[in-house]
Amino acid sequence: MTTVTAVPERSPAARVAWRMIAAVLVGCLVAPAARAQGTKGVSLQPGQHGPKLAIDVNGKTLSEWTVTSIPDTVVITVTPEDSLGNAIPLVGYEIQVWDPHVMELVGSTIAANNAVSKLVPHNRGQTTIQIRGSGVRSWVLVELGPSTMGIGPRGAPLAQGAPSNNILVAGGRLSYAGYSYAFAPFKSTFSGSGGVVAEAYIGRTYNYGLTLVLGAGFGVLKADSLGNSTTAKELELYLRGDYGFMPESRVRPVVSLGTGLYRIRTGSNSPLWNSALFWVASGGVDYTLTPRAVGEFHLSTQQLYETFSQLKWNGQSANGYVGNLLVIGAGVRFQL
């Protein structure tokens, strides 16, 4: 059986209300398209949303890789725009040249809706210019040859904002180390304490924020042996890998893993040596100080293992877990 329901006829007032609602909906759909078509010079890229930075170099829009003769001065004009190409207020403007040996920033003039920065080319090479403003960040790649300059837009830098994916670095750290001694045969007669560890290293930074370094450290640790204070001197050689998240950011979380050889000498008249292997795991942050210098802060645990001992304890080898260094420190890493 089919049931038919009669629909009451709408009143004149209801018909007017529905027509008004339909007109509003059509206006909401048509008006943005009409505005976009009527905006001169607008170019909407697929997937592009929100504001962007319009960048001019010496009066020409930076849109593709361009090669010119090397000018005396490079003038970069930055204008923040919304997604339709309309100028918006410039807030928080910052420009940074990663390698001032290639190109040096000499000054900026900042207005309400744009900024003009002047740079002077110097030596042959390649560098990246990072520009921030109104919550947007852009990068410009510059390459100076013997007589020409290449310049163009680039994406986010792959390795700590640097112009190259393979950068030689060197650095040092100074740390406080808490010494926890756990060598089973002598645990009851010897206990570790705190001290200072100094390190120096050299290595390379690769893609995606990865840095591999080869380093050496020397530590002076305090310890207690049968109630007498003694000094434990530590020497270490290591290979360490650091991985920095968000490599384009000024402040970057970092995790590290490493391994190496160590040697700790305890006592003077009858010294006790531990010479073997260690592994280290750490976390911390890197902070960009200058285009060529990065500050480091880290907290790490360094696990010590004895593998070469000739001692015997109740007929068994004294090899095994020796102890731990809990290291808190800071340092600086430089691009060479």
Q: What keyword list fits this structure?
A:
8-stranded antiparallel β-barrel, mainly beta, 8% helix, 1 helix, 336 residues, 5-stranded antiparallel sheet, single chain, Porin, Immunoglobulin-like
- What pattern of helices and strands is seen along the backbone? HEEEEEEEEEEEEEEEEEEEE
CATH third-level topology of the largest domain: Porin
- The figure for the number of domains is 2
- Total number of beta strands: 20
Number of helices, where a helix is a run of at least 4 consecutive DSSP H or I residues: 1
Calculate the mean pLDDT score and round it: 77
- C-alpha Rg (nearest Å): 32 Å
Give the overall form. Answer: elongated
The stretches of 5 or more residues where confidence is low (pLDDT under 50) are 1-11, 28-47, 158-165
Structure description:
This protein has two domains: about 50-155, Immunoglobulin-like; about 165-335, Beta Barrel (Porin), CATH 2.40.160. Helix content is about 10%, strand content about 60%. It has one helix and 20 strands. The protein has one helix at about 10-35, and strands at about 50-55, 60, 65-70, 75-80, 95, 105-110, 115-120, 125-135, 135-145, 150-155, 165-180, 190-205, 210-225, 230-245, 250-265, 270-290, 295-305, 310-315, 315, 320-335. The strands form four sheets. It has an eight-stranded antiparallel beta barrel with strand order 11-12-13-14-15-16-17-20. Strand 16 and strand 17 form a beta hairpin. The longest helix is centred in the N-terminal third of the chain and has 26 residues, at about 10-35. The radius of gyration is 32 Å and the shape is elongated.
